[in-house]
Every structure is written in structure tokens, then in C-alpha cells.
Amino acid sequence: MTSQDRDLLGLTLLENQVPPPVSPTLLASVKSMRPVRTRVPLRTLLAVAAAAFVFPLAALAAYPLRADLDALPALWVLSVAVVWLAGFVVPLTYAIVPRREQVLPDSTRAMRTAVLACLTLVLMGLVFTVDAPGITLLPRTTWDGFVQLWWHCMVFSLKVSLPTILVASFLLRWVAIAHAWRLGAAIGAAAGSLSGLTLHGLCPYGGAVHVGLAHGGGVVIGALLGALWLPVLVKPFRSAA
Amino acid sequence: MRNDRWNSGEEVYDLTKVESDRGSPRAGAHEKPAEDYRFAAVMARYCDGEARAFEELYAGLAPRILGYLKAMVGEQAAAEDLLQLTFMKLHQSRATYVRGANPVPWLYTIAHRTCIDEMRRRTRSRVRLSHDGELPHEPAVDITGTAEVEGASEDDATMARGLAALASLPDPLRQAVVLIKIHGHSSAEAASIVGTTAGAIKVRAHRGCVALRRKLQGGAAEAGPPVVADEATLEANP
């Protein structure tokens, strides 16, 4: 064994450090502790999903379905709805449910699904939008007309995203201890996808640019909002700890 | 035996060894899986309000966590403070635990984040300067390996030299070496602790080992500055 190897070997002693005794404050907390109900990730997932569904369900109850629904190919309507739904379920699940035998969700995996959802749904809107000629309403081809409708659909997305992010930040306040922005991005993207799914059934306006940038854009804006706000919302809990 | 990893130069450079533990956490690195999963049961009892379970958890995991923190901050006293903070956070967030899960990577994550938060606090804290604007002199800390401590054991001196070499590594490489090579985490676990991908942390561990060996070949005494983790690089991702 060389002296270098012995030096390296010395690092293995780092695993066998003698810890100091438990601090009196911590010891007192431990002695007076009560049993706690541990986290069930599936329950958290359902709670966040329920919060996300409040506004879409209310909107579906309040507004009529899009007029051109019967004129559009059923297979296209269904397959696009499945993609929107997947954009909701997959990022949300990865942001909340940890890998097997782990305590914390995998933030890297969650962020990847958020990015994937954003790209897929925007591109799907831009490339695979189908209109029923003469029945589907198309936005005016002016800049003002586009922006007005874009903002209308974006507000809808925000109404879905904001409550979802708020509820998720409360439920994940002790879970989002590392890279909360990644989890926030996934949750925001999921909420944006759910709003996209709802708009797929409600929004009377078609056109690839409108669907791609307004409905798909809701996913991007949701992801950005989540990435910005979740860390801010959970920070007080981290500081308190 | 753990020492085998360091005895052979080949193994230090051998990426396949690192890759091999991806599928089966810890296989070949340490004989820890059963031990780690034993803590799942202990953690469950702790969540059920059993104070004795906390003592078991502390006795079993505090030495490892302290070793990790010491490698990251380089000071025994600071590492001990962070250890207390880590276990306090564990106590406060025990309701987050998922029954049946391995609590060890979670505890490492808490320790890692606590360490980063502490570094940020240190960066923001005021520093008292002397009249000439220079920092006041502080005595050298033995752990840097720059000074021999009188009466220190051979083990301490060996570890100090190793730590000094480790200190010269950039923080991401140091984290990877400590978590994978010293503490025997799988690359997937280490990646989740640090918040990066398994591939990235494997590369870092490999580069770290190569750099560490180079440093030691160049002389441990010239291994670099004291261990001071830089929060910006601690936070950094690939």
C-alpha cells in the first residue's frame, strides 16, 4: 500500500465519526413527541389533483362544449384529449410520488417531464390541430385579435394553475426541501395541461397558432409560475425548520 | 472490505464499478442494504412516537451524517452543529416519512440542504474587519492537514491528509466522491441527494477520484486551501 493510498484510506474514517450527544433542545422535543401520521404520497397526489379539477369542472358545468365537436374527427378529439390528460397525470405524479422505497420525489425526473410536457403540448397544438371548415371559429388574423384570444385562454389556464400550485405548496411544504422549483415546474405544467384539456372541449376557437400558443402556452406559463412560486411558498417552512 | 476500493489504483479509475451499483444499490460497495432498510422499521417506530427509536436512529446514522458534513464543511465544530440541525429538521418533518421507505438518502438530503443553507448564511453574515481592512487572524484548524496536531493519533493524521486533498476538489466532485466512494451510496441515491442525474454524478465521482489521486501523488501537504464549501458550487448542477 502506498502512502497515497493510506491517505485516501484515511477518508474512509469519515464514516466512523463519533457524534456529539443529542442537543438538550432536540432531546426535549423527542421526549415530548407524539405519534404522527406519516405521508401517503398517493393521498397527496389525489388532494392536489382534486384542487386542480375544481375550476375545470366548474367551467364544464357553466359553459357549453365547443360547437364544432361533432364535426371534428372523433379519433383526433380522443387522442388529443389523451395527450393532454397524460400531460396532467405524468408530471403531477412524478412531482409528488417518490420512486420505490424513497421518501422524496425525484425532482430531476419531475423537471424532465415538465419540459417534455411543455414541448409536446405546444408542438401538438401547432402541428396537429384539426379544424372543421366553416364550423370552427378562427381567430382574426390581426395581432390584436390573436393577443385578445390568447389572453382569454391564458387567464383560464391561470385560474387552474394558481390554486393547484397553492395547494401543492402547502401539502409539499416539508417534502420540497431540495430543488423545489423543479417540483413546482412539474406541478405547474400539469395544471396547465389540465386547463388545455378543458379548453380542448370548451374553447370554440381553432387554428394551430391559437391552440399551440394559447392552450399549449398555458402549460409553459403554468410551469414557469410553479417554478417561481413553489420555492417561495415553501420557504417559510424551511426557514422555520 | 472497504479498503479494497482504495488499495487498487485500477479500481479508483474504474467507471464500470461505479456503473455496476446503479442496478443494485450499494452492491459491492458496502454491505449496507440490510442495515439501511433496518432503519425503515426504526423510522416507523420513531413516527409512532417511540423515543427509543430516535436514539437508535441517531446512534446508527449520526456517525455517517457527521462524516459527510465534515467532508463538506471541513470543520468539526461546524459539522457537529449542522448534525444537530439535521436531526432537528428530521424530527420536525418526520410526518413526511413514507412508511417502508429507506430513510437514509432522505436524511442525507436534509443534511446536504442544511449544509447549503448554512453556507448561504455564512456568506451573508457580517465579517468584522481590523483597522487596516484585513481579516483578523484565526488559528489554523488541524483538519486542513496543514498542521500536525500534537498528540493526534495516526488515524487522525491520515484522515487530515486525505481531507486536505479532498478539500482541493471542486465541491460537486467532492460531493460525488464522498457520497459514492466513501459513503457507498449508489449513483442513483447520490444523484437524488445532490439533485442531479445518476450519469452526471458517476462522471463527477470518476473525475473526483482521478483528481484526488493526482493531488495525493503531487503531495498531500500541498493539497490546497482549507475545506470551505462554496454554496454557489454546492448548489451547482451539471
Question: What features would you describe in this structure?
Answer:
The complex is a heterodimer of chains A (241) and B (238). Chain A contains 8 helices and no strands. Chain A is mostly helical and 241 residues long. Chain A has one domain (39-240). The two termini of chain A are 46 Å apart. The mean pLDDT of chain A is 90. With 238 residues, chain B is mainly alpha-helical. Chain B has a single domain (8-124, 156-235), classed as Orthogonal Bundle (Rna Polymerase Sigma Factor, Chain: A), CATH 1.10.1740. In chain B, helix 9 runs antiparallel to helix 10.
What can be said about this structure in brief?
Chain A has 241 residues and is mostly helical. Helices cover 70% and strands 0% of the residues of chain A.
- The chain-level mean pLDDT of chain B equals 72
Query: Structural class, from helix and strand content of chain A?
Result: mainly alpha
Approximate shape of chain B: globular
Strand count, sense and closure of the main sheet of chain A? none
Largest sheet of chain B: none
Largest protein-protein interface: A-B, 51 and 75 residues
Number of strands of chain A: 0
Strand content of chain B: under 5%
How many domains, in number, for the residues of chain A?
1
Helix-strand sequence of chain B: HHHHHHHHHHHH
